[in-house]
Task: inverse folding
């Protein structure tokens, strides 16, 4: 065996080892990318799929929801905006019921579909008795 053939074989073996290393790294990268994508999709699905609470459920048992932050999605009905007070309210209906939403933003246009998040509370309390149920809006999507 000549020196040049030894060098050639050594270089060939190095190429094979290097090629195998690259393949292993690529497999690891692909696996990590797939795992990262799956994790990202899971997080996005969990964030987006918390789901809106049915308004009918809130209205049927408001004490269960009082003080809790919920998200509702529905069609805007009547609206009121008191510009001098920078407050307003609008009604949202989702087919299971309707509820008034108190807001510090101008209300959305009647007929639009909105998703809003806020805290459920009594509309007002008189002599210790709660009357009505509203959502105090914290965020509108």
Result:
């Amino acid at each position: 065996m000549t020196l040049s053939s030894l060098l050639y074989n050594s270089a060939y073996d190095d190429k094979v080892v290097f090629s195998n290393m690259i393949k292993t790294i690529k497999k690891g990268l692909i696996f990590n990318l797939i795992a990262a994508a799956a994790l990202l999709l899971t997080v996005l699905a969990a964030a987006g799929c918390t789901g809106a609470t049915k308004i009918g459920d809130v209205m049927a048992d408001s004490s269960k929801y009082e003080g809790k932050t919920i998200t509702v999605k529905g069609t805007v009905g009547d609206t009121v905006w008191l510009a001098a007070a920078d407050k307003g309210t609008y009604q949202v209906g989702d087919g299971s019921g309707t509820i008034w939403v108190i807001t510090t933003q101008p209300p959305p246009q009647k007929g639009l579909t909105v998703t809003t998040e806020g805290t459920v509370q009594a509309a007002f309390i008189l002599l210790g008795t709660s009357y009505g149920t509203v959502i105090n809006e914290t965020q509108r999507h």
About this structure: The chain has two domains: 1-49, 55-140. The mean pLDDT is 82. Residues 5 and 11 are 10 Å apart (CA to CA). The chain has three helices and five strands.
